[in-house]
Amino acid sequence: MRKKTLSTFALASVLTLTMAGCVADEGETGGEEDAEAGDSEAAAITSVDEIVIALVPSNDVDNIVESAEPLADALSDALEGFPVRAEETQDYLGAITAMQTGDAQVVMSGPVGMIQAEEQADAVPITQSIRYGSDVYVTQWFTNDPDTYCMDEPVDVPDDEGNTMLFCNGTDEAEPGAVGEEALEMIEEGTTVSYVDQGSASGYYYPATQLNDLLGFAPGEGDIDEQFAGSHDNSVINVYNDSATIGTSFDDARQNVVAENPDVGEEVVVFAWAGPIPNDGIVVSSEFTEDEQAVLTEAWLAVAEDEDGLAALDEVYEIEGMVEADEEALDGARQVYNDFGDE
Description:
Helices cover about 35% and strands about 20% of the residues. The protein is of the alpha/beta class.
């Protein structure tokens, strides 16, 4: 099964915290009750005076900045006008630090970032993203040296615009999971690998764990030359520009740079996968009460149901929907995070 980009939020209704107060008794107009209900909804969050969303750059930093305000507005609308603003952070660590210090109350992050926020900032996972109908995704390994790492002839699976996108070792049609591990075993000590960020699930934790399991190359121990590109797009460009022989990203980050680099799908060939990985999601501060956490969950689900809200989610992280957080799925990410680097 091919997924074209990244990694889900569906089904919810608009926030209705006090609908009972909006219903008039025995045919009364209910105008006074309606006003009281609106006041109650607006006051549903009382632990903070303002909600700050911390956004972690995944692709284009400028795009995150431009999309931040519409996203904050969408959540504010779902919370009946409660003040919300969004701030971009430099990386995953910055987002978690912001929550630790109280500078952010909501973090949108990949699964490992969600677990880090949970463990380091006492955050609570509330939702996960849906993309291409799935709540899981994979790391894609790619190379500019298919003669070495492709065990078969690369296959062209054009994107929606007809651009060539080459895959080998079965990555063109596999179900989400580990694929092409025989090719990964060809990686030699000292090989330069372009990872994404030290806090990225698909860009570092999962693929580095996979190499450790297959070859005993422990993360950060110098067995390979680990380079961190800072974003998924940049990791693709590193391999495209021959700054590294191999790289990692979400599947399929090449589509984010093909407009500027039309031959990237030919020069950068996907040859292996790691995963499956639970999709990114949202965690909230534990300073919110359980009732407030439920309010925020319903509000985010409502954002994903609203046309403008979904457009804002798509602009920020290419999110197509939302569901409530799947604790069982996140347990896998917890294990990867807690075991990271163990031999």
